[in-house]
Design brief:
2 domains; globular; mainly alpha; MetI-like fold; single chain
């Protein structure tokens, strides 16, 4: 069918499709080649990885980089810190956003429009504008240099609340009313009806928040000074940037640095295939509601 459409199309459309295809291929190569280069360097030996070439296949194949970064450089500690912050923060974020979204679907909540307006206003304020006040508040609460400050950072967001509200609006409110007439409480209606019927929405918010927290860099950079509390992104920054800028007594070879980058993105690649189906459905449903 695609070939028939191509044959029926005029020369103008054919040239446009060809240029469009060429542009997409070039765009794809700009992303694939650096990624293959990182993988190949991480699987090369230390000496081979120091050559200033772009390689698409490993030279002198070796797992030396992964072994050094995991054992000698103790990358496991920032990895565990990142997992702790990401999993705990994401679970709390999804729960609180769902609870707030559930409140906003009730038709007789007083001040509902005012609350939605306030939530929209919070989405217009850039995060950098409130970073210094947040630092002062966290310092007064003695949260600086703790993992708790990273879990509490961005614990709720207007985007997630409104997204969950839109998903809940797709569920007929009569179902909740019938359950309440039969004696069900609010928490039972919320957990057994709304949460179960909004699986795609939960997967969408979970994926967004998981990726945001795993890649979180600014908050750890500002709130964390203790190297024992470093997250993975901050540890990679210290290893790649700081060791290159200073004359340290040891040298971190390129294969070790690239192995760290692969370890940092591996959880995201591993989780995406399992939530992709819900993610695509969630994006479409969330975009089509009011």
């Amino acid at each position: 069918m695609g070939i028939e459409r191509f044959e029926r199309a005029g020369w103008g459309s054919r040239v446009f499709d060809a240029i469009n295809l060429l542009f997409l291929l070039l765009l794809m190569l700009t992303m694939i080649i650096p990624f293959l280069n990182v993988i190949s360097l991480s699987l090369s030996s230390g000496v081979a990885s120091m050559q200033p070439d772009i390689i698409l296949l490993p030279k002198d194949f070796s797992f030396e980089g992964y072994k050094i970064i995991w054992t000698s450089l103790d990358i496991w500690r920032p990895f565990v810190n990142s997992v702790t912050v990401t999993v705990t923060g994401t679970l709390l974020h999804v729960l609180l956003s769902s609870l707030a979204g559930y409140v906003l679907v009730h038709p007789h909540v007083p001040g509902k429009k005012l609350m939605i307006t306030f939530i929209l206003i919070t989405m217009m304020i850039p995060q950098e504008a409130v970073l210094i006040p947040l630092y002062v508040v966290n310092k007064d609460l003695h949260l600086i240099n703790t993992l708790s400050v990273l879990v509490l950072s961005g614990l709720v967001s207007g985007f997630s609340i409104l997204l969950m509200r839109n998903f809940f609006l797709s569920i007929p409110y009569e179902i909740a009313e019938s359950a309440k007439i039969d004696g069900a409480g609010e928490f039972w209606v919320f957990g057994a009806i709304y949460m179960r019927l909004a699986t795609a929405g939960l997967a969408t918010v979970t994926l967004f928040e998981f990726v945001r927290r795993w890649n979180m860099f600014t908050e750890p950079l500002v709130f964390i000074n203790d190297s024992m509390k470093y997250t993975l992104q901050l540890a990679l920054k210290s290893m790649i940037v700081d060791t290159s800028a200073t004359s340290s007594t040891y040298m971190v070879t390129t294969n070790v640095k690239m192995a760290g980058i692969i370890i940092a993105i591996l959880p995201l690649i591993a989780i995406y295939p399992f939530v992709q189906r819900f993610f695509m459905k969630g994006i479409l449903l969330g975009a089509s509601k009011e």
